[in-house]
């Protein structure tokens, strides 16, 4: 029995079409005509042994088999692209100093930086977790090459806007939330001031005329997560990095979105810094788009 080999170019077109919500847009991204893309998709369905797409309104949606194939397609493309990076960057060497928010520590350290290390074994990466103000201060002093920070309105000279993420109310998964009252105000577990999320929470509650109190403060996000898990209060962050023991809360006052920026210390960074910047930006844009990202 023969086993057909999936064409990576075809899989790349499939992924692009789903991410962009249009195979006409995907044709532009992959540099092919719409007729060529249609031929690719027919070839893919032959290789898959059945339909991977179905009509949905004016567009196309994945069939159950297509959803399974999409996951494998992303993994195959990631391996292919990592192999290319390794071969192209085998001689890349130097160092890069990265600062980031705690929210992104686990995802970036475990995925992007691990993959970067495999691709560039002669590059030394120094990473540190810190609050927004500290990250920007270290960047201005040229103690960091890259800094991933929430947008607090401060203008920096070399900044890439990665995207915007909605702020969310977060509470313990199994704790009940009693309606707040003057006698029992809503308890908040927050990072120490100054904190953009803390300011957003207080402003939203004040607009809604909901009584509140700061029940717990911590210099670290890990401390806030632990306090929320213990039922000491609710907090406000994005949905990124929320522990499994916590949940996003509905029915709370509306919160704004917050910008996420990747700052660079130099206008013309080294090749090492450029490479890591590119990987982080791609990873985070997948995260902002709301789908799992892998290094």
TrEMBL record:
Asked whether the keyword Transcription is assigned, the reply is yes
Q: Which UniProt keywords apply?
A: DNA-binding, Transcription, Transcription regulation
Residue stretches making up the HTH lysR-type domain: 6-63
Molecular function GO terms recorded: DNA binding; DNA-binding transcription factor activity
Q: What is this protein called?
A: LysR family transcriptional regulator
PANTHER family assigned to the protein according to its UniProt record, in alphabetical order: HTH-TYPE TRANSCRIPTIONAL REGULATOR LRHA-RELATED, TRANSCRIPTIONAL REGULATOR
Family designation: Belongs to the LysR transcriptional regulatory family.
Recorded hits in Gene3D superfamilies, A to Z, give: Periplasmic binding protein-like II, Winged helix-like DNA-binding domain superfamily/Winged helix DNA-binding domain
Q: Does the keyword Transcription regulation apply?
A: yes
**Domain of life according to the entry:** Bacteria
What Pfam families has UniProt attached to this entry? HTH_1, LysR_substrate
């Amino acid at each position: 029995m023969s086993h057909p080999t999936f064409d990576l170019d075809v899989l790349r077109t499939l992924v692009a079409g789903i991410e962009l919500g249009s195979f006409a847009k995907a044709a532009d991204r992959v540099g092919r005509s719409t007729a060529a893309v249609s031929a690719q998709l027919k070839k893919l369905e032959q290789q898959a042994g059945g339909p991977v797409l179905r009509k949905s309104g004016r567009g196309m949606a994945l069939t159950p088999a297509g959803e399974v194939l999409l996951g494998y397609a992303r993994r195959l493309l990631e391996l292919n692209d990592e192999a290319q990076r390794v071969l192209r960057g085998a001689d890349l060497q130097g160092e890069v100093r990265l600062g980031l928010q705690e929210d992104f520590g686990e995802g970036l350290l475990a995925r992007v930086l691990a993959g970067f290390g495999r691709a560039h074994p002669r590059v030394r990466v120094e990473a540190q977790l810190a609050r927004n103000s500290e990250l920007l201060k270290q960047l201005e002093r040229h103690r960091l090459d890259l800094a991933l920070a929430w947008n607090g309105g401060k203008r920096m000279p070399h900044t890439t806007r990665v995207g915007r993420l909605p702020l969310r109310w977060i509470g313990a998964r199994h704790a009940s939330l009693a309606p707040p009252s003057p006698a029992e105000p809503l308890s908040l577990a927050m990072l120490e001031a100054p904190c953009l999320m803390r300011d957003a929470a207080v402003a939203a509650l004040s607009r809604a005329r909901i009584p509140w109190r700061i029940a717990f403060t911590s210099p670290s996000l890990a401390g806030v997560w632990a306090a929320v898990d213990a039922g000491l209060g609710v907090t406000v962050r994005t949905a990124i990095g929320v522990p499994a023991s916590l949940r996003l809360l509905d029915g709370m006052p509306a919160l704004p979105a917050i910008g996420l920026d990747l700052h660079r210390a130099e206008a013309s960074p080294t090749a090492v810094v450029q490479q890591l910047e590119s990987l982080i930006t791609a990873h985070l844009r997948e995260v902002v788009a709301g789908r799992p990202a892998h290094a």
